[in-house]
């Protein structure tokens, strides 16, 4: 199970990632391009779960390079990775931090960073 400390550690390893806030939630980006954000469920999200118990917070949204990569990530069946109706046709997955393995979290965050980081940062990155 990953923690917010694991998230902070991985984010800290990625060059030029800055932390910000949008709509009252923590976000992370590289040179202005978003890679991840904390994403609590809205009332509408919770209603869509119906009788099903929603995943426990904290929930992290992580961008993917495109919808094809998103489908690949979901098809991989990584514990703690899922999507919701609100994210249909949007290249991002949701992560239940209390479920995902720290290594899987790192892989998804690095992939999100690689998808938007400029070539000069990618060339210098050894992670």
Q: Which terms summarize this structure?
A:
127 residues; alpha+beta; Aspartate Aminotransferase, domain 1; six-stranded antiparallel β-sheet; 5 helices; globular
Q: How much of the sequence is in beta strands?
A: 15-25%
* CATH class bucket: Alpha Beta
Arithmetic mean of pLDDT: 95
Specify Rg, calculated over alpha carbons. Answer: 14 Å
Helical content, roughly? 25-40%
The total tally of domains equals 1
CA-based shape: globular
Q: So how many helices?
A: 5
Cα-to-Cα separation, first versus last residue: 21 Å
Q: Provide the structure class.
A: alpha+beta
Count of β-strands: 6
Plain-language structure description:
By secondary structure, this protein is α+β, with helices and mostly antiparallel strands. Helix content is 37%, strand content 24%. Strand 1 (17-22) and strand 2 form a beta hairpin. The longest helix is centred in the last third of the chain and has 15 residues, at 102-116. The chain is globular and about 50 Å long.
Outline the fold blueprint.
Elements lengths: L3 H10 L3 E6 L2 E6 L2 E6 L4 H7 L9 E5 L3 H9 L5 E2 L9 E5 L5 H15 L2 H6 L3
Antiparallel strand pairs: 1-2, 2-3, 3-4, 4-6, 5-6
Helix pairs in contact: 1-4
Quick overview of this protein structure:
The protein is α+β, with helices and mostly antiparallel strands.
């Amino acid at each position: 199970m990953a923690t917010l400390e694991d998230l902070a550690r991985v984010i800290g390893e990625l060059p030029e990632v800055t932390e910000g806030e949008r709509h009252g939630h923590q976000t992370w980006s590289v040179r202005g391009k978003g890679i991840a954000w904390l994403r609590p469920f809205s009332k509408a999200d919770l209603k869509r779960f119906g009788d099903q118990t929603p995943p426990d917070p904290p929930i992290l949204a992580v961008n993917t390079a495109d919808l094809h990569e998103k489908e690949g990530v979901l098809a991989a069946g990584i514990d703690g990775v899922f999507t919701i109706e609100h994210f249909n046709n949007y290249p991002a997955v949701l992560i239940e931090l209390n479920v995902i393995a720290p290594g899987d979290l790192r892989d998804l965050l690095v992939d999100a960073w690689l998808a938007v980081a400029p070539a000069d940062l990618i060339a210098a990155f050894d992670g």
